[in-house]
Structures are given as C-alpha cells and as structure tokens.
C-alpha cells in the first residue's frame, strides 16, 4: 500500500463528503484554534506560505489576507471534494490564494521556497510523520517557520469522548486504537511531537496548550442546537466510526443516549463542549 493510502480513501470518501456538508459549522468549531496558530505563525506581507491539509480552505484564505497580494498562500490537501469546495470559495480579489490536490508528504516542493509551513488540524494523519515533516521542511527557507494546531489526546477532548461515553452499554466497545496511529489525536503526546519535529530537522520547538470550548451544535432553540450537535456527531468524529455497521435498533438507542448527553451541555441555544489542543511552532534547523 502507498503511504497514507487509507487516509486518501477516507478523505475522498465519507470523511470528505461529511466535512463538505458540515463545512460552515466545522469552521466555526475550529476557529479559535486556527486563529491561535495563525498568531503564532506571525505571517508577514509578502510571505509564501504552505497550508498543509487545508480542507475547505478557511485557514488558507485567512493566510492570504495576511500575506497580501505580494505573497502566496498555497493550500494543499489529499481530498478532491474538499479542494473543490475550497476553490469555490476563492475570491477574485485574492489571487495569492491557490489550492491544489496533493499529499504533503510526497508533493513536489520548491527548494526553500516557503517562509512558513502552516496547518490547522491537518498534520496528524501521516503514516510516517518524521519522513513527512522532513519532506515538507525541504520546501522551507533556512530558518523558516512551522506553526500548526493539533488536538491533545482524545481523553482531554470531551467533544470526542462524551458521545462515546453516552453509548457505553448500548454499542459493544471497539478495541482501543493505538494513540499514535494516524488520526485526529495522534499528536496528543507533546514529547512525541517534539521528537518527530527534531528528527525531521526542526529546532526551537514550542508546544503550548490551548483550551477552548467548541460549539458542537447551534440553533434558534435549544432543541435545534441539540439536533444539530447530534447530526454533526453522526457525521464526523469517533461516534460515526463506532456506529458504522450497527443494527438500526442499536443506532436509534445510541442516538437517544447521545441526545440526552448533548442536552446537558446546552448553553443559550448552543451545545458547548470542552476541547483541548496544542499550538506547535518550530524553525527549520538549516540557517
Ligand atoms: C481534520 S481535517 C482539517 C481540514 C482543515 N485544515 C480545517 O481546519 O478545516 C484534516 C485534513 O487533512 C487532510 N490530509 C490528511 N492527510 C494528508 C496528507 N498526507 N496530505 C495532505 N492533506 C492531508 C485531509 O484530507 C483533511 O482535509
């Protein structure tokens, strides 16, 4: 199997389709984390920036706003449906924003062409993270910057674990996946992230925690907000995987249990759940 083959299948299949369908809500959910990473990246006018795993392009468009027309914001992703959505969002007024379907770990990169490598939750999916980061670093100028947001462990992210706790006893629990297997929570251990980046040729690695509740559901009423949260939990995250292939009756019971759990998280017509991430930054060791 080629590197990252399973991710290519997932993000061009169900995962990609679900992200496109929920793009606006997911952008609102991830916004505080993306903004914190953007602040850390300290992008300047005229910078050339690679946005890794850019999805539907929200962060790339924000980066393009920072680089201005004299710079370049190149968003790349393995997902064809997400890049298609990103291209639909590019404004004529932002010629510096560009999108391309590519695997960040193998794509052709300009030698030392970028001032900054950036990502909002798009770098935790590589089969071989050291090789992937070493490859991406080859496209970075000497002393160039890396900044990204990633999740801490699943156990610290209630938005992921609350639905799973709610279905305990209803759905047989799946064998626990390795915490370092490619996936949203694979960068939960900061020592592992530091080792990956050092082995890939970065230095000045900084890893700072960010705690921010995520808006997991919203609506004109509390009932609408809970329905929205349920819809999202069935579309993205561990609940979707846990319920795959289960009998209809089990899914109905699970939905009722998750609905009750989300109702307990209602605040002003929004379902607010704890989220926990890292803001990671580093420099290209080659000076
Ligand atoms: C959790 S989503 C985040 C999307 C986007 N950055 C955002 O914040 O909305 C992860 C993204 O990483 C992409 N991805 C996973 N592996 C990749 C790889 N090897 N190269 C490029 N993109 C990848 C996926 O297709 C997906 O769009």
UniProtKB/TrEMBL annotation:
Keywords, A to Z, come to: Methyltransferase, Transferase
What InterPro entries does this protein map onto?
Methyltransf_25, SAM-dependent_MTases_sf
Listed Pfam families: Methyltransf_25 (PF13649)
| Signal peptide residue numbers | none
Q: Name one GO biological process term.
A: methylation
One GO molecular function term? methyltransferase activity
To which species is this protein native? Sphingomonas montanisoli
> What is the protein's given name?
Methyltransferase domain-containing protein
Q: Where is the Methyltransferase domain?
A: 49-144
């Amino acid at each position: 199997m080629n590197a990252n083959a399973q991710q290519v299948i997932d993000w061009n299949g169900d995962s990609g389709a679900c992200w496109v369908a929920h793009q606006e809500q997911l952008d609102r959910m991830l916004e505080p984390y993306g903004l914190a990473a953007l602040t850390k990246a300290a992008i300047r006018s005229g910078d050339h920036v690679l946005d890794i795993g850019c999805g539907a392009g929200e962060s790339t468009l924000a980066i393009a706003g920072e680089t201005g027309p004299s710079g370049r914001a190149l968003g790349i992703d393995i997902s064809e449906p997400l890049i298609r959505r990103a291209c639909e969002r590019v404004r004529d007024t932002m010629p510096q924003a560009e999108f391309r379907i590519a695997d960040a770990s193998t794509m052709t990169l300009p030698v030392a062409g970028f001032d900054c490598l950036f990502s909002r939750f798009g770098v935790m999916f590589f089969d071989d993270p050291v090789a992937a980061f070493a490859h991406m670093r080859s496209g970075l100028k000497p002393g160039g910057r890396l900044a990204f947001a990633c999740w801490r462990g699943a156990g610290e992210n209630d938005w992921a674990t609350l639905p799973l706790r709610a279905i305990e006893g209803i759905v047989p629990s799946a064998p626990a996946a390795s915490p370092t297997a490619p996936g949203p929570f694979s960068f939960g251990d900061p020592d592992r992230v530091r080792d990956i980046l050092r082995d890939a040729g970065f230095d000045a690695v900084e890893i700072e925690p960010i705690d921010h509740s995520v808006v997991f559901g919203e609506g004109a009423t509390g009932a609408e907000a809970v329905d929205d949260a349920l819809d999202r939990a069935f579309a993205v995250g561990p609940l979707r995987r846990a319920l795959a292939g289960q009998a209809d009756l089990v899914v109905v019971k699970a939905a009722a249990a998750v609905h009750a759990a989300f109702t307990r998280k209602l605040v002003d017509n929004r379902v607010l759940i704890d989220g926990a991430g890292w803001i990671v930054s580093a420099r290209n060791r080659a000076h």
